Amino acid sequence: MATTPTTGTPAPECRPPTRQPFRSQIGPPLRRSTIRLNEVMSFAYETFVSNKVRFALTALGMVIGTASLILVVTIGMTGKQYVQRLIQSIGANMIYVEYSGGAQRITASAADPLTVDDVRAVQEQVPSVSYASPLIVLSERIAAGSGKEKDITVMGAAPEYQRVRNLIVLSGRFFDGEDSTSRNKVGVLTQKMAEELYGSVDAAVGQVIKLNGLPFTVVGTFKEGVDTFGQSEVQDYTMVIPPR
Fold it and tell me: What is the pLDDT of residue 152?
């Protein structure tokens, strides 16, 4: 049987989907990056040429900022090391032991102060203690010449006191164990006291100072390892003698 096609809208033509051409994933990105870098460099150069003063000020600000940061960090570290050295000079591992009798009681109780034997016991029984010295601080008035008198601090201490407090001998010597054992009447003066009384630290060596009527010969002068500004037991006018 023959059929006749009907007239109307023709059917759409079926075509296969178009495929995108394959592109390499390596070449184009690198090329775009190179182009962008060239654009950035070109823009920077044009900006530099057109605004040289602004460019110079920006670069100068970066240099100053970086230098300031480095300087602040350096000063901070240097200051920290300086403070640590000061603390070590004063005595970072130094311990003070002091007797305190407390308040008065109704019942009579004898005082039990620390003695030289206690110091010896510490040296013998506590191996972690490198140096130990008893210390007693008194006040005295001495003749300062031309009919004048001066109030000074007199400290009784062992020869180890020099190492305990890191004292620096400026002239003469510090009294030793023989002076302490023999009860020699010798002593050492602070630098300021020696210079005010005798003019210099060297002139003070060999001078005689009377304490409570007893003559003491000055065998040396000293100063603290670091200036404590009068906040330690060593004052400006101090004389150290062996304990008696």
Answer: 92
